[in-house]
């Protein structure tokens, strides 16, 4: 799967190079490209935002800059473009599974008060939120989406964990224990002790 990320803060995505997602990128199971929206500003001061028509506090990201950044992505016509937005439908496991079947995602991250609606209407296929609480931008939500979707890509998580999870479907969770057998005077439950870790 190819994932292009449109953001004003590409450095926030460094953590994707760690752990399981980092391995998946190394193994070419996922390809992630970061596009800095600011690189497409035509302004001499690299300005990307402006005040809001009709009043209201804060600034909006300008539509032309986002559009030019989007058009710079090879194959953008055939990709699914997702705007991470507090107004979107809340991400769930069924949506995650569905998105994992796409071969090319473009993730648009807003910051400040958001993005001019006209470019959203022009390029966005789906609007997704990660829950009913307020963040400062779409970058952490984009990472949550990538992390959850990546787990469904063949080879990203080890096949035993995947199998175990498909049995339980997340419903048969239970407390788990490893060594030492006694920790702060608390013992591992007797019934589990015959199966050594
Ligand atoms: C927070 C942007 C608040 C804009 C009229 C219309 C992406 C997010 C975000 C943010 C506003 C997600 C307004 C859960 C989140 C995100 C930044 C305010 C004002 N006035 N999922 N709209 N929570 N948040 N909008 O915050 O970009 S996915």
Write structural notes for this entry:
This protein is an alpha/beta fold and 197 residues long. It has a single domain (2-161), classed as SPOUT methyltransferase, trefoil knot domain (Alpha/beta knot). Helices cover 27% and strands 22% of the residues. The protein has helices at residues 19-26, 63-71, 93-99, 117-123, 139-150, 159-168, and strands at 2-7, 31-36, 49-51, 59-61, 80-90, 104-109, 126-129, 182-183, 186-187. The strands form 3 sheets. The protein has a 5-stranded parallel sheet. The radius of gyration is 21 Å and the shape is elongated. 24% of the residues are buried. The structure holds ligand 21W. Ligand 21W is lined by residues 84-86, 110, 113-114, 129-131, 133-138, 141.
| CATH third-tier fold name | Alpha/beta knot
Question: What structural class results from the helix and strand content?
Answer: alpha/beta
Low-confidence stretches: none
- Overall helicity: 25-40%
Q: Which strand order do you get reading across the main beta sheet?
A: 2-1-6-5-7
Strand content: 15-25%
Ligands, deduplicated: ligand 21W
Pattern of helices and strands? EHEEEHEHEHEHHEE
Question: Whole-Å distance between the termini?
Answer: 35 Å
- Gyration radius, in Å: 21 Å
Outline type: elongated
Tally of helical runs? 6
Overall residue-averaged pLDDT value: 94
Would you spell out the secondary-structure blueprint of this structure?
Blueprint: E1 2-7, H1 19-26, E2 31-36, E3 49-51, E4 59-61, H2 63-71, E5 80-90, H3 93-99, E6 104-109, H4 117-123, E7 126-129, H5 139-150, H6 159-168, E8 182-183, E9 186-187
Parallel strand pairs: 1-2, 1-6, 5-6, 5-7
Antiparallel strand pairs: 3-4, 8-9
Helix pairs in contact: 2-4
Ligand 21W binds next to strand 5.
């Amino acid at each position: 799967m190819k994932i292009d990320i449109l953001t004003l803060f590409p450095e926030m995505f460094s953590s994707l190079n760690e752990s399981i997602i980092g391995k998946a990128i190394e193994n070419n199971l996922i390809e992630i490209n970061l596009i800095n929206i600011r690189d497409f500003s035509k302004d001499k001061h690299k300005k990307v935002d402006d005040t809001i028509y009709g009043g209201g506090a804060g600034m909006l990201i300008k539509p032309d800059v986002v559009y030019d950044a989007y058009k710079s992505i090879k194959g953008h016509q055939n990709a699914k473009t997702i705007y991470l937005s507090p107004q979107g439908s809340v991400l769930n496991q069924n949506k995650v599974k569905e998105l994992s079947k796409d071969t090319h995602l473009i993730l648009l991250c807003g910051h400040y008060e958001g993005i001019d609606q006209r470019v959203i209407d022009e390029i966005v296929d789906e609007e997704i939120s990660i829950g009913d609480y307020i963040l400062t931008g779409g970058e952490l939500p984009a990472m949550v989406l990538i992390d959850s979707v990546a787990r469904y890509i063949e080879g990203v998580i080890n096949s035993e964990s995947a199998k175990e999870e498909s049995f339980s479907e997340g419903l048969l969770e239970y407390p788990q224990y490893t060594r030492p057998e006694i920790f702060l005077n608390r013992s591992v439950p007797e019934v589990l002790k015959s199966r050594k870790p």
